[in-house]
Amino acid sequence: MTEFSGQRILPAVKTVKQFEKLLGSRYEYGVFLDTHIAQLKNLYAMAAAKGKKMFLHADLVQGLKSDEYGTEYLCQEIRPYGIISTKSGVIQKARQKGVLAIQRIFLLDTMALEKSYALLEKTKPDYIEVLPGALPDMIGEVKARSGLPVFAGGLIRTVRDVDNAINAGAAAVTTSNEELFKIYAGGAGRGTQQ
User: Fold this and answer.
1) Which class is domain 7-185?
2) Which pLDDT tens digit goes with each residue over 2-39?
3) In this structure, are residues 94 and 76 in contact, taking their beta carbons and an 8 Å threshold?
4) Where, by residue number, does the polypeptide cross the bilayer (predicted)?
5) DSSP E strands: which ranges in the chain?
6) 133 Cβ partners below 8 Å, 6+ apart?
């Protein structure tokens, strides 16, 4: 695997303490889940100083409306490695601004899945984040039908869940599970773990 320097997981951090651990780790890529707009410039400066490439979940930035204007601000002022969102306008604006765009979709039922396929046709993201990611059969189906690379996220609790998602075709797994951060940290999330 060469995507994301071979990282199997992309640690998704929700707190400054988690972020500080990520800064001191061998992980090159990570995700900001829950942040405040006033912290973003400082967080991204700290990440850049340590050579970290951070995705940003635009829908979870407190103090910023998750729309095209908010996305334009993020792309111009913060310059995240990539933007994750459930919103089509956010994905389209990120792509327009040359930032990796990750469309987050929820696998609730067949009708939601079909609506997601229609949305993907419209937004044309660089990646799809499939939730819950603990459904390996669905990861393979979404990847095959959309023709796009997939992240698996949500309800990833064990090494087996990570392996199942990767074996099903996920490019990487996003997780906020700190135990998995530790397990994969030695090799920065590379390779199969016992």
Assistant:
1) alpha beta
2) 589 899 999 999 999 999 999 999 999 999 999 999 99
3) no
4) none
5) 9-13, 29-32, 35-36, 53-57, 61-62, 82-85, 100-106, 127-131, 150-153, 172-175
6) 139, 151, 152, 153, 154, 155, 156, 161, 165, 170, 173, 174
